[in-house]
Amino acid sequence: MHENLRSRTIPALLKDAGYRTGILGKLHVEPESSFPWDLRDTDNASTRRVRTVAPRAADFIRAAGSQPFFLMVNYSDPHAFRDESKPGGWYFPPDVDGIPEKPIPPGPATLFDFQQVDSPAQRERTANYLNAVARLDTGVGLLMKALEDSGQAGNTVVLFCGDHGPPFARGKTTVYESGLRIPFLLRWPGVTSPGVASKRFVSTVDILPTILDAAGLEAPQPLHGASLRAAIQGRRWRDYLAAEFHFHGARPFYPRRAIRDSRYKLIHNLLAGRARPSTGIDGDFAFQISRESRYERTPIRRAFDTFADPPEFELYDLASDPIEFDNLAGKPEFSAVRKRLAQALVKWRRETSDPFLDRAFTEKMLREGAPSIRGTGEAR
Q1: Distance, CA of 207 to CA of 230 (rounded, Å)
Q2: Distance of alpha carbon 5 from its chain centroid, rounded?
Q3: Which of 51, 191, 200, 267 is the most buried (most CB within 10 A)?
């Protein structure tokens, strides 16, 4: 984390405001000293045993007494297990400690529409990913019951979100919708209503301003996001949603930018023709399956060809093509849409001080990588 931001993390700001702070599970940002936790239980593997998480959370809430608290709970599921004995070195167990009680069996219905490749191994992998999601759901239910039992549910904001799409090719580490669309649920007593869904464009950059709003605190500096209170109450909100990707580990370095409106999505691959992204993630073999002869001259093969060696720009009509198989960027009838989105993307990049607007900086990163984040995950 950039040094000037280390005193402005969510737990640091809330700690200064008198909150008891805690974390259960993975902390994926360094240095850890940037996060002043009163409770620091960062054993990532233990949160896969979801029955053990809620009691620890209950102990933390009980220890807070009348003090306001902030608790971050990071479940391991639905991340894959690292196991070199498995194909690809990763796998999803169908159950852990008997959860889920009735695992979903492999079958054609478990395959992802954004891939559309099929094999017995892929059916098993996708089914067990869904079982990991079911295990997470059970854990969240137990956690919510612990909050209710504590008597603090009526004055506690609960925000649930993921950090990226499924760890499958064309998902995690991409800026396709399958990589960017994550669960994002908010329970804010007195502000939200049960069962209400919104199509407003929200982002993880909105988490900090939302928490500060709920706590009645001022932002320490101008922020790119906004409190979700405005979106919930129907006030003016953003018309475009932008996203970026740089690294998963230090290599391969393949920076991407994306922006979408209510219908169209533009992707800018900043190093198209000069570098290529990784075609695998966490042991997924979908790309290799797409090379089989049965997929020749099919939309599936074309989509994976684009995935493996993207052009500079990709444009998709999400209304007719939500899985982003048909790149419209080169079609004259969509030139006005492409131009409008490209202008909006440049505007966003300037507003957020994107260092990759500087060609010299991009070249330096391409040559040298990023030693300070090598091996620790996505940059910036």
Answers
A1: 13
A2: 21
A3: 267
Q: What percent of the chain has pLDDT over 70?
A: 97
Query: What CATH class is the domain 241-272+310-373?
Result: alpha beta
Examine the pLDDT at 366 and tell me if it is beyond 90: no
Tokens encoding 208:
């900090």
What is the C-alpha separation between 92 and 125, in angstroms, rounded?
7
| Neighbouring C-alpha atoms within 13 Å toward the C-beta of 7 | 5
Residues whose CB falls within 8 Å of the CB of residue 337, separated by 6 or more in sequence, listed in order:
264, 315, 328
> Who has greater pLDDT, 209 or 6?
209
State the Cα–Cα distance between residues 317 and 273, nearest whole angstrom.
Answer: 24
Confidence at residue 255, expressed as pLDDT on a 0 to 100 scale: 94
Whole-number Cα distances in Å, 91 to 38, 86, 101, 169, 282: 34, 7, 19, 15, 8
Predicted confidence at residue 373, as pLDDT, reads 46
* pLDDT for position 249: 74
In degrees and rounded to multiples of 5, residue 259 shows phi and psi of: -150, 145
- Best CA proximity match to 241, nearest among 259, 217, 264: 259
CATH homologous superfamily, domain 3-81+128-232: Alkaline Phosphatase, subunit A (3.40.720.10)
Coil vs helix vs strand at 31: coil
Number of neighbours of residue 192 by Cβ within 10 angstroms: 17
Question: What average pLDDT does this structure show over 228-241?
Answer: 94
pLDDT tens column, 141-166: 999 999 999 999 999 999 999 989 99
- How far apart are alpha carbons 23 and 251 in whole angstroms? 29
Report how far residue 213's alpha carbon sits from residue 227's, in angstroms, rounded to the nearest whole number.
6
Q: State the residue for tokens 């069996």.
A: 105
Query: What residues does each domain of the chain span?
Result: 3-81+128-232, 241-272+310-373
Going by DSSP bridges, is the β-strand pair 184-187/81-82 parallel, antiparallel, or unpaired?
unpaired
How far are the Cα atoms of 91, 249, 281, 318 from residue 85, in angstroms, in the given order? Answer: 10, 22, 17, 39
The pTM score is 0.93
CA distance 366 to 196: 45
